[in-house]
Write a structure and sequence with these properties.
The chain has 819 residues and is mostly helical. It has 37 helices and five strands. α23 packs antiparallel against α24 and α25 packs antiparallel against α26. It is elongated. It starts with 12 loop residues before the first strand and ends with a helix.
């Protein structure tokens, strides 16, 4: 009933015992072929992007008939796999005297100290060159008969590894061939860039030594070259010594020039290869790992130049790029896209994401078995969907996500036991649910994807119970369902989901108290609960939930004050608290929260003025402050705040003219500012704001159909009302009739929609008011009668609606005055 795995038996003696039995250098030199075979084994692993990370004599077994095996791959790492945090067992553990004898030291420093490269001893990231160093240390051990470093403790050995090269071989043993001394020196170079790139190049040099060829890493003097030639051509020398004398006397200068030229050419080739490799490694790091680190700091803009140079570099080498290099080029396009997206240049960002996806798709088509490249391709397509959402092309964005979903569903079905593949699928369900909800308004579709996400998360949890990752999967799936239910208007069910989300968070915190990801999700759950309670009219409960949310955000910011994303989320919660206080009638408290919201955002915007999300939030903060000033009737205080909001919205739209959300935001700013100016009596300025509103509303209807034509109707209505107050009744009537025509069309398309009926009643009332002002009493009364009939039909469906009652009373009062 217990799972087991039967492994091949590898027989043989550890290399250190074989070395110990060879008391003379000549005997140990006979071991070189065995070490070369181990180099071949590691070279194959390197070709598959696998590194061993714990090479030592005990892990190389030599059989009775010369067969060689490399064992104990427990610390091996797949360099092609996505980076992930080290597990708890990877942290440094107690180390004792056994480690000095060659036992592996597990932890943030992994490997065996005497054979470990300096970067591994420091706990830094390593690549193939770490194994090359260890193989060089094994060769050193073979030649010297002892490890390259010794000491009384692990820490003493590690200190020597980091501080200095090992003692020269000549100080340990006489007669080591210079070729082998050079190979050891190159393999064990302190700087990784100075070593062989992989075990293959080291193996090639060892084989050249064994067959008497020139070793690439060694610089031969003229005398050495002649001696080697003499040894290999003894018979010819015996017959033609005179010819040799001629060569020695006449050709020595020519030989010297040839050798020197070859050395220079080889040096230049190696420097070029090293420089290119280092440059590509640096670009890969900056566009990958560094990009991930800069994002929460709000400084993706720092990568703009690097990514542009990377694309230019790979463009110059288009014809000789490997697939790995093409993947780096795709990553550079994605990075530029991210920078452009942060700056609000969504069209340009979309072009970069599509360039990345085209490269990724081509690589994946050539090597469909390389899962990491297929994963990169799906990331590029998800970036495309993000850009399409920002541009208002929701259906196209959903198509992109569904394309990724199909790919990841096939991958998950093909590898049901691969939990990372299953989690990749989880992420796509989450993305599709978010877009369906927030951009499409499809609550049913969003809820279905959220439930699919939850079902898969529960399956993963059954396979991997009691782990933090599985707990996080459940938390986020419940959060997605809570959001969909809230948008669907099922506030009770949404509150229940948020409470379940909180229970799952608490279970996760029991596994790892203080975990930042869980604390973040806990804050999100409190916000969801607060919003559900607010919709239910429980402003007290909502306020309590939002304040808990804020307390967690403060805790997160204290953990990492440099994390701009966390600072941003903390600022937004002040808006939620302010909304809850406003709902409770605490206007001064609400305004204080909104001002705190603004004050926390200002330095974040100053840090990166191109970040559109932060600037949109700042515009919202000015809007809230201005609205509170309007609530207390202080128009003079409201107008500067609303002007600030309008200014930010205009700048955002200037940078991204096709962004539907920014169009709508600027239109709303013009409407609110126009309403305020009209109340203040500044009718000409209000009229200018409403005409700007009309222009934007028409653009909005053509760019993003989901907003419909209602904003156009509102703009005509506002212009008409302002013209009426200015006494321009004929012009006002034209505007109001245009508004009514749109409202009639909308109401006819959806007769059961009470909001449309209310708009229709308002349109008839507005025309009636203009006609009465112009003394067209009969026509004015007819329009008001139509408004009254519509409102009475509406009240028949909901007799307790106070807003409709108030509107009907006002219409009746106008009719009475007209009599």
């Amino acid at each position: 009933g217990e799972p087991f795995f039967a492994m091949k038996l590898v027989s043989g003696r550890p290399l250190d015992k074989v070395i110990g039995e060879a008391s003379h250098l000549e005997d140990r030199l006979a071991i070189i072929p065995r070490l070369a075979a181990a180099c071949d084994a590691i070279a194959y692993a390197h070709s598959q992007r696998i590194i061993h990370r714990d090479l030592k004599p005990a892990n190389v077994l030599v059989g009775d008939f010369g067969e060689t095996g490399v064992i104990d791959w427990g610390l091996a790492k797949d360099l092609a796999a996505p980076a992930s945090p080290e597990s708890a067992e990877d942290h440094r553990r107690d180390r004792d005297a056994d480690a000095i004898a060659g036992e592996t030291v597990a932890g943030s420093i992994m490997g065996t100290p005497a054979y470990m490269p300096p970067e591994q001893a420091l706990g830094d990231a390593v690549d193939e060159r770490a194994d090359v160093y260890a193989l060089g240390a094994l060769l050193y051990h073979v030649l010297a008969g002892a490890p390259p470093y010794d000491g009384k403790s692990v820490d003493e050995i590690l200190a020597k590894v980091v501080a200095e090269p090992p003692p020269p071989l000549a100080s340990r043993v006489d007669g080591v061939p210079p070729d082998l001394v050079t190979i050891v020196a190159k393999a064990m170079a302190h700087a990784p860039v100075d070593r062989y790139p992989t075990a293959r190049e080291l193996s090639d040099d060892l084989k050249k030594f064994q067959t008497g060829q020139l070793v690439a890493s060694h610089r031969y003097s003229l005398g050495e070259l002649l001696r080697r030639w003499l040894r290999r051509h003894r018979a010819a020398v015996g017959v033609g010594s005179i010819a040799l004398l001629v060569v020695a006397t006449v050709g020595v200068l020519a030989i010297r020039r040839v050798v020197a030229a070859e050395h220079r050419a080889q040096d230049e080739r190696e420097r070029a290869l090293h420089s290119r490799s280092d440059a590509e490694d640096l670009m890969s790091f900056m566009l990958g790992e560094l990009s991930d680190k800069l994002k929460p700091l709000g400084r993706l803009d720092l990568l703009d130049g690097v990514a542009s140079k990377a694309i230019a570099y790979y463009g110059r080498r288009e014809d000789d790029l490997s697939d790995e290099e093409r993947a780096h080029r795709a990553a550079a396009h994605r990075s530029i896209g991210d920078v452009l997206a942060d700056r609000g240049k969504t069209d340009d960002a979309l072009a970069e994401y599509r360039a990345a996806a085209a490269i990724d798709d081509a690589i994946t088509a050539r090597a469909p078995s390389r899962g990491e490249w297929a994963r990169e391709a799906t990331i590029s397509h998800l970036r495309i969907s993000d850009a399409l959402v920002r541009l208002g092309h929701t259906d196209a964005a959903i198509d992109e996500i569904k394309r990724v979903l199909a790919i990841r569903e096939r991958a998950a079905a093909a590898a049901p036991g691969d939990l990372q593949t299953q989690r990749d699928l989880l992420a796509v369900y989450a993305r599709l649910s978010d877009v369906l909800l927030r951009s499409k308004g499809d609550t049913a579709g969003a809820l279905a994807e959220g439930r699919a996400e939850l079902a898969l998360a529960e399956t993963i949890t059954r396979k991997q119970p009691g782990t933090l990752d599985s707990r996080l999967d459940l938390v986020r799936a419940h959060g997605r369902i809570a959001s969909a239910l809230l948008s669907a208007g099922d506030t009770a069910a949404a509150a229940d989901e948020a409470r379940e989300e909180l229970r799952q968070v608490e279970a996760g915190l029991a596994l790892e108290p203080g975990n930042a990801d869980l604390l973040f999700d806990q804050a999100v759950a409190q916000r969801s609960l607060g919003k559900a309670l607010a919709e239910q009219g429980d402003s007290g409960g909502a306020l309590e939930a939002f304040r808990k949310d804020l307390a967690i955000r403060e805790q997160l910011v204290a953990k990492d004050p440099s994390n701009v994303d966390w600072q941003m989320e903390r600022a937004i919660v002040h808006q939620d608290v302010g909304d809850a206080l406003e709902a409770r009638g605490d206007w001064s408290g609400a305004e204080a929260e909104f001002r705190q919201y603004r004050d926390l955002l200002l330095p974040l915007v100053a840090l990166d003025p191109h970040d559109t999300r932060k600037r949109r939030s700042l515009a919202a903060a000015y809007d809230r402050i201005g609205t509170m000033a309007l609530t207390r009737g202080d128009y003079a205080a409201a107008i500067p705040e609303l002007r600030q909001e309008e200014s930010i919205a205009a700048e955002l739209l200037e940078h991204d003219p096709d962004n539907g959300a920014d169009l709508f935001a600027l239109a709303s700013s013009h409407q609110k500012l126009g309403d305020t100016l009209m109340r203040q009596g500044d009718l000409p300025t209000a009229l200018a704001e409403f005409r700007a509103l009309l222009s934007l509303a028409e653009r909005l209807a053509s760019k993003d159909p989901k907003f419909g034509r209602r904003p156009i109707a509102i703009a005509h209505d506002r212009i008409g009302e302002t013209l009426r107050l200015m006494g321009k009744l004929d012009d006002a009537l034209v505007e109001q009739r245009q508004s009514l025509a749109i409202r009639e069309e909308m109401a006819a398309a959806n007769p059961s929609n009470m909001h449309r009926q209310q708009d229709l009643a308002s349109g008839h009332r507005a025309i009636g008011t203009v006609l009465l002002d112009g003394h067209h009493v009969a026509e004015g009364r007819a329009e008001l009668e139509q408004a009254r009939e519509i409102l009475e039909r509406m009240l028949a469906t909901d007799p307790n609606n106070n807003e409709w009652k108030s509107s009907l009373a006002e219409v009746k009062a106008q009719l009475s005055s007209a009599n």
